[in-house]
Design goal:
Length: about 575
């Protein structure tokens, strides 16, 4: 028995040294939330073990009884430290006021007052000595002892409840850490229950404090206890819609939110290294490697399978500026990038249209103004009418091109006839020896001015490129309804003799010609503004055609006519039956 007790005492001394060392370590991190309270808790447990060990080694003497009372010098700060640590660890620091500290001192003051001035037996009733007891004395608890026991277990219960609740809501990042803290708390108090209410020759509580020391050691050095604030998890990880990965200093993912798991399509990425977790996303992994800078926050944008991501790596430091981890945040910005690209495209388009308006359209308008002055000098009424019509048409065209540049949608929709639109547009274009043939008719609901512009541009392209073998472009710089005035910018119609056919379909219409056509590989390109084979053309013709079609909610494509020429197909209109063809014009 004596040999067993000596071994027991030296084991307790070793446990006391471990707990004392951890207390010093926690005290060095007292700036952290819960650091001071944890240091007090561990110091109290260490004193507890020291007193028990000393009491066993001096068993049977008056000194052993002194150490038996000295146990409470360790137990009481341990109780207060446990409760304070639970409040701080679970983000309830606001309750750690001076009033709380004062209330925690009430019970120790009452206890030690009863010890020093109270009646005999208030805390312990002692008889002996005896070789059968651990301290060499028969010790029986009195009413103050049992009151202290109830108070202590109440604090343990409240502290454990707070930590258990936190474990349920903290997520995976701190779950192992929280379980370790609960185990460290539960072991000695479980031993206390067995020692008090069971039949044991030695106290199990101090012995089980060895498990407390080992568990807290793991929590400190492996579970990162006090390194990263538990509150940060709730605020940083769970509250963000972006993918968030918390990475430790060994580049191991210790937590990821739902958005992060969905991004990588992996539910079990926690515990993996960043290299393994991002293996399926090489672009993201490469960017992570490039951003892996301990000194500062780094940021970059990557493109991955037509998606754009803003990637940010932020280091996490403790209060002593020691790197303890990183937050790797991935935020999708695909919509933002698309808006930026569209804005850039529209700005470029506006610049090009501004150049067209200032040169290709304004110059002919100046020429027409000069002709008007000349006509007034000669007093020729017909010249007046022609120049005035040219002015009106040019001004209207400028307004329409500006509307195209601003991407305005059609608003003035009326019921129109396909054949009437084709004939009106034909009258506005210098068609030379070309021929218009209308093979079918139908109703069209749309903006008359815009649809006239569509037909005029298609007819003009067919006439000007019909027999040159060139690619149709966007030359809309001709005047409408009359021959061009002679100037440096004028081009004589090149496509004489071409036949242009307008036909109705059940869901739209077609405009074809018997010219050289458009090669298949160039049919999409011709709708791009700036594409033209004419030196004096603006390159807006078929781009405007496409804009008019899209503003009405229709579709357009360039194909090949039956004679091998170009054929514009507009579809997406309200389905109708095609009416009988009209007599060719």
């Amino acid at each position: 028995m004596a040999t067993l007790l000596v071994a027991y005492a030296f084991l307790l001394l070793a446990v006391a040294v471990v707990l004392g060392t951890l207390s010093v370590y926690a005290w060095g991190r007292r700036d952290y939330s819960g650091g001071t309270a944890l240091a007090v808790l561990l110091a109290g447990l260490s004193i507890w073990d020291l007193c028990v060990a000393a009491g066993v080694l001096t068993r049977g003497t008056e000194l052993a009884l002194l150490f038996a009372y000295g146990v409470f010098v360790g137990v009481m700060p341990a109780m207060a430290g446990l409760f304070a640590f639970a409040l701080a660890y679970t983000d309830r620091d606001r309750y750690l006021s001076r009033r709380t500290v004062a209330l925690l001192t009430v019970e120790p003051i009452v206890f030690f007052a009863a010890l020093f001035v109270g009646p005999d037996g208030a805390i312990y009733s002692i008889s002996g000595p005896t070789d059968a007891a651990m301290y060499g004395w028969e010790i029986t608890g009195g009413p103050v002892f049992w009151g202290h026991l109830v108070y202590s277990y109440a604090l343990i219960a409240v502290s454990s409840a707070l930590i258990i609740h936190y474990a349920l809501v903290s997520g995976g990042l701190y779950r192992k850490q929280v379980y370790a803290v609960l185990l460290a708390i539960g072991l000695p108090w479980f031993g206390s229950v067995l020692s008090i209410f069971g039949d044991t020759s030695i106290e199990l509580t101090p012995l089980l404090l060895a498990g407390t020391g080992l568990t807290l050691s793991w929590a400190f050095f492996r579970g990162r206890l006090l390194d990263i604030s538990p509150v940060a998890y709730r605020e940083v990880v769970e509250s963000l819609n972006s993918a968030v990965f918390v990475v430790d200093t060994n580049s191991k993912i210790i937590e990821a939110n739902d958005a992060g798991r969905q991004l990588l399509r992996e539910e079990t990425i926690v515990g993996q290294s960043v290299e393994d977790a991002l293996e399926t996303s090489p672009e993201l992994l490469e960017k992570y490697r490039g951003l892996n800078d301990d000194a500062k926050e780094t940021q970059a944008v990557i493109e991955q399978r037509d998606r754009f991501f803003d990637v940010q790596l932020t280091p996490l430091y403790d209060s002593r500026d020691t790197l303890v981890g990183r937050v790797f945040l991935v935020h999708e910005i695909t919509e933002q990038k698309q808006r930026e690209r569209e804005l850039e495209r529209r700005n470029q388009q506006l610049d090009q249209f501004a150049a067209v308006l200032s040169h290709d359209l304004r110059n002919p308008l100046s020429v027409a103004s000069g002709r008007l002055a000349l006509a007034r000098e000669r007093n020729d009424p017909e010249e007046f009418d022609r120049v005035e019509e040219a002015h009106e048409r040019m001004s209207s065209l400028i307004d329409e091109v500006l509307a195209f540049a601003r991407d305005e949608k059609t608003t003035d929709r009326v019921e129109l006839r396909l054949s009437a639109l084709a004939k009106a547009a034909w009258a506005h274009v210098d068609t030379g020896e070309a021929t218009l043939q209308i093979d079918g008719d139908r109703e069209i609901t749309g903006d008359r001015d815009q649809l006239l512009q569509l037909f005029e541009n298609v007819v003009r392209n067919a006439v000007e490129h019909g027999s040159t073998g060139g690619r149709p472009g966007g030359d809309d710089s001709t005047e409408h309804g009359h021959s061009r005035p002679e100037s440096d910018n004028s081009v004589e119609p090149a496509g004489t003799g071409v036949t242009i056919r307008v036909d109705a379909t059940s869901d739209g219409f077609t405009i074809g010609d018997d010219g050289p056509g458009v090669p298949p590989e160039e049919r999409e390109e011709i709708f791009t503004h700036g594409v033209t084979s004419s030196e004096s053309g603006t390159g807006l013709g078929l781009a405007i055609v496409q804009h008019v079609v899209k503003s009405h909610g229709w579709a357009v494509e360039m194909t090949e006519s039956r004679s091998g020429g170009a054929k514009l197909v507009v579809s997406g209109l309200e389905t109708q039956s095609v009416q009988s063809p009209e007599t060719p014009s």
